[in-house]
Amino acid sequence: MSGRSVAIVGGASTKFGVRPSTWSELAQEAGAALFRAVPELRAEDVDSLFVGAAEPERFAFQSHVAPLAAEQMGLRPTRILQRTELACASGQSAIRSAYAAIAAGLSDLAVAVGVEKMNLPSVAEANSAMGCVMDRPWDGPHGATAPPFFAMVAQRHMLEYGTTEEQLAAVSEKNHRFANSNPNAQFFDKTFPRDKLLRLPMVAPPLRLGDCSSMTDGAAAVVLTSEEYAHRYTDRPAWVRGTGQYSDFHNLANAGSLTDWVGLRHAGRRALDQAGISVRDLDLAELHDCFTISEIIEYEALGLCAPGEGGAFAADGRGAVGGDLVVNPRGGLLGCGHPLGATGISQALEVFQQFSNAVPAARQAPDPEWALVHNLSGSANVHSVMVYQRGGAA
Amino acid sequence: MTDERARRRGGASLAPTKPESPRTAPSPAERTSVARPGEKRPFLLDFFPLETARDTRLSKFYDRLREGRLSTTRCPKDGVLLWPPRTACPKCHSEDLEWVDLPERGRVYAFSAVLAGAPLGMENEVPFPVGLVDLDGVALRLFGRIEGAPWTSLRVGQAVRVEAYDLNDGRVFYRFRVAP
User: Fold this and answer.
1) Domain coordinates in residue numbering, chain B
2) What is the pLDDT of residues A163-200, one digit of tens each?
3) Where does A239-291 have alpha helices with state H?
4) Please, are residues B160 and B133 in contact by the beta-carbon 8 Å criterion?
5) A205, B120: Cβ pair inside 8 Å?
6) Which residue of B has its CA nearest to A133?
7) Is A338 a catalytic residue?
8) CATH class of the region A6-121+215-232
9) Does the ipTM surpass 0.90?
10) Is A16 in contact with A217 (CB distance < 8 Å)?
11) Whole-model pTM?
12) pLDDT digits (tens, 9 = 90+) for A299-321
């Protein structure tokens, strides 16, 4: 890797859920939580702010959210201030941009914050906001949103490989169980055993309610800095060792195979190669389980198992504590909810906390050194991957 | 959706694909509306696009659809069909593209149905099936509504045909209907 080494050195999250809070209040809450969680952080040292926000115009009737977030958080950026938008991957985009700026020497200390307010008085208006993530004038009039698209993905995976509803439910059960150890998760206090999941109503067949992540309000923030300053904030930095992104279509007509996520194969390969490790070296992964079928295909595309074996990988508990690696210990999008801009930040925060052995034992990966974070966005037409290594003494 | 309701919502089958055959627009009586009277939505909450030459350089797509022809653009240099219709070729960047009619029949590659979570203005149409359809004889797989059968009786491989339908506000759009 060229440029300076960059690490996440701290972070914090709000409670995710249906929150009686506005967009700005969520940003304030994340800022307050961040300064409590990282007592060494001084606002005047933060030279740059990257704000992951997918659709504040649709959900909060608010544009120009980067300076708004800065004001809410008590920051006065002097070097780079910008919003990053990549739908469901907006949060990881903020981290990637902060990483690039610090590596290039354009920033020394940056905050990446993700904020999304998705629960509106009108559920249908919120669904319209989700619909315009697709190619709006072509796919939108047919009623395209994420659930029917990923339902078709699941149908094809079932048809081509024999994947079952029970295997889908195994993903949801695992991630909801992890969420039961994460008080910030939307479904922290709800249990979803497999037989209950299989009785929930269909949203878009074959996907049931428990196969789908929800509309969630929440915010999260992390601090990034370079190798020169990381020791000021933590003795367990999470070093960025690799990144990869890939996009090859937008309109649904150009998706190609629904079950072979070429973009993730490329993005994952690039990120792992840059880090100089194999997928077998990973101790934990935060994968974008917007739907249960997504996590199953992500196992396959990352090479954790062969194509078609993702369902068995889930059902056999190979992504649980004690399995091949721990997948979505935070609770995933299924258990935490999916506030679009905040999700990628929250995933990275989980990696940082896992590296410090600072999460409850029920979801702690054993002595993790390598972690991968993945977000897809839209109709899985963009894949964004980052690889982290634990710093400090083992 | 019941057959009766599907019939009331109407839509006209595209004319035969033979290029020499005359094409006729569906008569107004054959057209019904999905945008019900009094439900005109603000532009930023309306998924259906603006279709006239005042708003889009692709207005021919809608003009041809109004005549019952589903069409798209093709780059004459490499002959590749482009979807959705475009004004510039993504490969050679030529802006000299040609319009071609598409087959009106195809088969379902994958389908689901929206049972919940429909966008504003589509809540009353729930449940509605949607799918990806491989058009016969061309390398295009289009997404769209599938009318004429409940989702529980649809199958992968199901034969469908394209139909144009009228929004009753001067605009027109396309969808699929289960073929007899």
Assistant:
1) 3-178
2) 999 999 999 999 999 999 999 999 999 999 999 999 99
3) 262-275
4) yes
5) no
6) B47
7) yes
8) alpha beta
9) yes
10) yes
11) 0.93
12) 999 999 999 999 999 999 999 99
